[in-house]
Specification:
heterodimer, A: 296 residues, Alpha-Beta Plaits, 2 domains, 4-stranded antiparallel sheet, two-stranded antiparallel sheet, 6 strands, 12% strand, B: 225 residues, 6-stranded mixed sheet
Chain lengths: 296, 225
């Protein structure tokens, strides 16, 4: 460890350049991983709750609503039907507009529609139920999650592609900078390497200090990046609580294991640390091997 | 045992460094390799280290056989050989102990064995009091002793010395030669030099190389070209 620290101190500018590039790469990689995890978690959440919401016309009679509720229940494709009256809708609206009294003043329970929140037993029943509801008397609008899922899928796919391009670019840049820095150091030790080779040192023996040095830099950059990432998530906790209100948790599957993304927890922090550490290890190993290869 | 059989080294531009050279060296033998500058002495030493490749023939070093084919056991071969250069090749940023330890660290010896062998080697070369000094604090003669100490530690049975007295004054030269005398019989020593006095005083086997050819191979010879 002392040898590594001494070697880094002897070349402070190269060390700073390599550390900065690694830090920004890992910070951005971590941010992209967290964004993807939240998006995927949201998609999973929506997909596991097959729901149709039907809004009735303001003038729709209670009898009409009850008839629709009965017809839908008779299909035996629903698990739960929740009636939200105009008054309940107004209460929900009041909660949403509590910081904007002007909006609340302009609205009353009378102008808000009653609605039914219908949970299907299977997601594939949703289009059929939606089609049936559209043709019922008194129905104004039918919303079902296909649109939401489609939009989320499109967004997730775009984010994945962008992430892949960013990951590749960042990795490439980091490898180039780290390889150049290490090559400079190796060039300074060319004579020492020559002596070691004549003494019978294996290539791995010669590589070891350079690999150790780059892994040390990678570990340092990973630690800094994760402190920033976790700090940001903790500071955004209140905002996210409001944003994900009503969603008890978001879960994704990582390497075949379920991982809870939201509410923010220690396991997710460890997963982020693991992902950035693996990324850092890949960069540092590729760089140190390609830099030393030139001289062995 | 070291055996050269019809060894030729031809450089890419066609000039010949060694021309069909053959000789055998027994274990524990002390052999002078003499000849004018550019005769091919260093090429023979570099061949033994697999630092250059031969164009024809074959070399046997104990159970290693080097041919014109790619030799894959260079690391293992080099671990049997200690080297002493004219320009010492001592690492300036490491102290004397660390420089000598390198020779054993590359072979994976444990710390206690390294410490013991280094102490013995420092005693042999009479630089025990310089153990923790840095190369810049030592004279040329002392640096060459460090190089010899590095060559003898770590179970290295062969010592290749390439003009080891070339940078030393006469007094230091004889002090270094005394160390080599002590190593006789324990190690196989190939000593490349063009110092007439040294060769004539010790009366050991002399192999004379001139223009890449083996001219003479005398059991108890002197320096004659």
């Amino acid at each position: 460890m002392n040898d590594i620290v001494n070697s880094l101190r002897r070349t402070p500018y190269q060390t700073f350049a390599a550390l900065s590039v690694l830090f920004f790469t890992l910070l951005l990689s971590g941010l992209l991983f967290i964004s993807l995890a939240f998006l995927q978690g949201l998609l999973n959440y929506v997909e596991t709750r097959p729901r149709v919401i039907v809004y009735f016309q303001v003038k729709a009679e209670d009898e009409q609503i009850q008839a629709v509720q009965k017809n839908i229940r008779n299909t035996n494709k629903t698990s739960e039907i929740k009636y939200v009256s105009k008054e309940e809708a107004f209460e929900i609206y009041k909660e949403f507009t509590e910081n904007d009294p002007l909006l609340l003043e302009m609205t009353s329970a009378e102008i808000l529609p009653a609605s039914l929140e219908i949970d299907a037993t299977k997601p594939e029943y949703l289009p059929e139920l939606a089609e049936m509801l559209k043709n019922q008397p008194g129905v104004d609008e039918v919303q079902f999650q296909k649109d939401i899922i489609d939009n989320l899928l499109k967004l997730t796919s775009k984010v994945r592609k962008t992430t892949a391009i960013f990951f590749s670019y960042l990795m490439f840049m980091s490898i180039i900078v780290l390889t150049t820095t290490l090559s400079f150091k190796i060039a300074l030790k060319r004579e020492e390497i020559g002596i070691l080779k004549l003494l019978g040192a294996t290539n791995m023996y010669i590589r070891k200090p350079f690999i150790g040095e780059s892994i040390f830099l990678g570990a340092l950059a990973t630690a800094f990046a994760n402190i920033i990432l976790i700090g940001t998530l903790i500071s955004m906790n209140t905002f996210l609580q409001g944003y994900f209100a009503g969603i008890p948790n978001l879960t994704i599957s990582l390497a075949g294991m379920p991982l809870q993304v939201w509410p923010f927890n220690l396991t997710f922090a460890i997963a982020t640390l693991t992902v950035t550490s693996i990324f850092s290890l890949c960069i540092t190993l590729i760089s140190s091997f390609s830099a030393t290869n030139r001289y062995l | 045992m070291i055996s050269f059989q019809n060894v030729t080294v031809r450089y890419p531009l066609g000039n010949i460094a060694l021309d069909s050279i053959s000789f055998d060296i027994e274990d524990g033998e002390f052999v002078y390799l003499v000849g004018p500058s550019g005769a091919g002495k260093t090429s023979i030493l570099r061949l033994l280290l697999n630092d250059i490749h031969l164009s024809e023939g074959s070399i046997t070093v104990d159970n290693f056989e080097i041919t014109t084919q790619k030799f894959k056991k260079a690391t293992e071969l080099r671990q049997k050989i200690g080297i002493v250069f004219q320009d010492f090749k001592i690492l300036p940023e490491s102290n004397i102990y660390e420089n000598i330890a390198l020779s054993m660290l590359v072979k994976g010896f444990d710390k206690s064995r390294i410490a013991k062998e280094i102490d013995d080697a420092l005693r042999l070369t009479d630089i025990e009091d310089k153990k923790y000094l840095f190369p810049a604090q030592l004279s040329a003669g002392e640096l060459q002793r460090v190089a010899i100490a590095r060559a003898v530690v770590g179970d290295r049975s062969i010592i290749l010395a390439d003009e080891p007295t070339g940078n030393l004054d006469p007094k230091m030269t004889w002090e270094v030669m005394k160390i080599f005398k002590q190593l006789e019989k324990k190690k196989t020593i190939i000593f490349a030099t063009h110092n007439t006095d040294i060769v004539n005083s010790m009366k050991r086997r002399v192999i004379v190389i001139k223009k890449g050819k083996l001219i003479k191979d005398k059991k108890k010879g002197g320096y004659e070209l």
